[in-house]
Design a protein that fits this description.
102 residues; alpha+beta; Double Stranded RNA Binding Domain; five-stranded mixed sheet
């Protein structure tokens, strides 16, 4: 199941996340997109995909992929035990890829 946020943001694989965490995920992604829109006028969309790769009670690992669409497509992924830390990390990675190099 894919969640659509604002038309150009898609969250895939977040269906089983508890509602309180999902609110935080939406805030993090929304703030990221807002910042990218301010710094990159060619922003076309963001797709974040979540997969559980090592499911154990209180010890799961999350694989998070981010696809940022501007004039080109930038991708990044991380594997992390903490969902929110992983989300922040993957968004920072994809942002670093998209920033113009000086």
């Amino acid at each position: 199941m894919t969640l659509e946020l604002g038309g150009n943001i898609q969250l895939t694989g977040f269906r089983d996340i508890d509602p309180a965490t999902l609110v935080i995920v939406k805030k993090i992604v929304g703030n990221f997109v807002k910042d990218m829109g301010n710094h990159n006028s060619g922003f076309r969309g963001l797709n974040v995909t979540l997969k559980s790769v090592h499911e154990r009670e209180k010890s799961e690992k999350y694989e998070i992929h981010a696809h940022l669409k501007t004039d080109t497509v930038y991708t990044a992924y991380v594997v992390e035990r903490n969902l929110l830390v992983g989300l922040d990390s993957v968004l920072k990675k994809v942002e670093k890829e998209a920033r113009p190099r000086v």
